[in-house]
Design brief:
There is one protein chain. This protein has one helix and eight strands; from the N terminus they run ββββββββα. By secondary structure, it is α+β, with helices and mostly antiparallel strands. The chain has one domain. The chain is globular and about 50 Å long. It starts with 10 loop residues before the first strand and ends with a helix.
């Protein structure tokens, strides 16, 4: 059962024991959130970084200046950075030639952290995209 987001996004479940059901609580704590401006290919990108802490720590940074409504050479940029602590079991493979990035998270806690990070990234990118679109419309009017 998922509780309300006002309770620090706690997931509450029950595990069976021989004598009674005991609560099992998973806390993907969002320790803090920071804001920054990144420069990518001479583009200024507002970014948000959040640390997700459970059995490991996964830091996710996400930002975009899209939509720019221009061609790919002048268009916006979107950034997604995942940083794991030394306790996380994470392997990756990247090839610029094949334009492929593969991330492998080993473990249940790492899977939960990745899901939380991707949900945060998607929500933040949608919000930034809507805000950027509204700002561009206001500048035109």
């Amino acid at each position: 059962m998922r509780t309300s987001s006002t309770q620090a996004d706690q997931w509450v479940g029950m595990t069976a024991s021989p004598n009674r059901a005991t609560p099992r609580i998973r806390y993907p704590l969002f320790m803090h959130q920071t804001y920054s401006v990144l420069t990518v290919d001479d583009n200024q990108i507002a970014a948000v970084t959040r640390e997700l802490v459970s059995a490991n720590t996964l830091r996710v940074t996400v930002g975009t200046n899209c939509p720019k409504a221009q061609g790919p050479e002048q268009g916006g940029r979107t950034v997604l950075v995942l940083e794991a602590d030394t306790g996380a079991d994470l392997t990756f493979e990247a090839s610029e030639r094949s334009k492929k990035v593969s991330l492998v998270f080993d473990g249940d806690s790492e899977c939960d952290s990745l899901i939380d990070a991707l949900e945060f990234a998607a929500s933040t990118l949608r919000t930034m995209q809507h805000a950027n679109r509204a700002a561009r419309r206001a500048a035109i009017a």
